[in-house]
Design a protein that fits this description.
It contains 9 helices and 5 strands; from the N terminus they run E-H-E-H-H-H-E-H-H-E-H-H-E-H. It is an alpha/beta fold and 210 residues long. It has a 5-stranded parallel sheet with strand order 2-3-1-4-5, sandwiched between helices. Helix 1 packs across helix 9, helix 2 runs antiparallel to helix 3 and helix 5 packs across helix 8. The chain binds adenosine-5'-diphosphate and thymidine-5'-diphosphate.
Length: 210
């Protein structure tokens, strides 16, 4: 098996099952001898904590400022010498991220337009292209049921209307990015955890030609 490190990202609306599937994919890859590391955006670096303050409503910024903050956090996610994606890949470790620039294109795209979000992300040399994006597609009603059963406080994006609009924007983002040559796989996330995990693993293993 070609064991070179890959960069895989998961996308989908809140509650689609990203954390669950990332954990299962990491376990399955490790079993096959592929070293992995998991991270998420917003990151746990100070650049990501500032975003969490906005999402929780503790700090108010304009929509454009928030898009800039996400892009800066993403660049930091790539280049940070303490566990950043570039360091991981150079050490032969496959990096798996819970969300990446497709989230900005969907969530911030609704607010400030896709062109502006693409400019902030795709024209930044510190923001690398993933080897694979796995989009977990779930209808917002189901995602809200799952979020409610997690008993977590609700963030500013977690309403039916917003999730529905975001999901539709995600479809547009995926089409646009596939047309730009990106490797994106869309998986029906309304099924059982195991069925989804099996499709996710199949999609990921194609990166190693197996
Ligand atoms: P995300 O990271 O996309 O927000 P999670 O993986 O945290 O989603 O899943 C949200 C909730 O739904 C969790 O409580 C999780 O246990 C549950 N869940 C995840 N996948 C499934 C599934 N396929 N079917 C039913 N519940 C699921
Ligand atoms: P989080 O609690 O991580 O949500 P989830 O568990 O569903 O991934 O919150 C991240 C929120 O930030 C989520 O609602 C999506 C939003 N977001 C953006 O708006 N733009 C972005 O670029 C990213 C990475 C996330």
């Amino acid at each position: 098996m070609n064991n070179s490190a890959k960069f895989i990202v998961f996308e989908g609306i809140d509650g689609a099952g990203k954390s669950t599937q990332i954990r299962l994919l990491a376990e399955a890859l490790e079993k096959r001898g592929i070293k992995t590391s998991q991270s998420a955006e917003p990151t746990s670096y100070p650049s990501g904590r500032a975003i969490r303050d906005v999402l929780a409503g503790r700090v108010t910024v304009s929509s454009d400022e928030l898009a800039v903050m996400f892009a800066a956090d993403r660049a930091n996610h790539n280049t940070n010498p303490d566990g950043g994606i570039n360091c991981l890949l150079e050490s032969g470790i496959t990096a798996i991220s819970d969300r990446y620039y497709y989230s900005s294109m969907a969530y911030q795209g609704v607010q400030i337009g896709l062109e502006r979000v693409m400019q902030l992300n795709l024209e930044n040399p510190d923001i690398r292209r993933p080897d694979l994006c796995i989009f977990l597609d779930l209808e917002p009603r189901q995602s809200l049921d799952r979020i409610e059963s997690r008993h977590e406080s609700t963030e500013i994006f977690e309403t039916y209307e917003y999730l529905d609009k975001t999901r539709k924007t995600f479809f547009n983002v995926i089409d646009t990015m596939i047309a730009r040559g990106e490797n994106i796989v869309c998986i029906d996330a309304s099924r059982s955890v195991d069925d989804i995990a099996s499709d996710v693993l199949d999609a990921a293993l194609k990166l190693w030609d197996c």
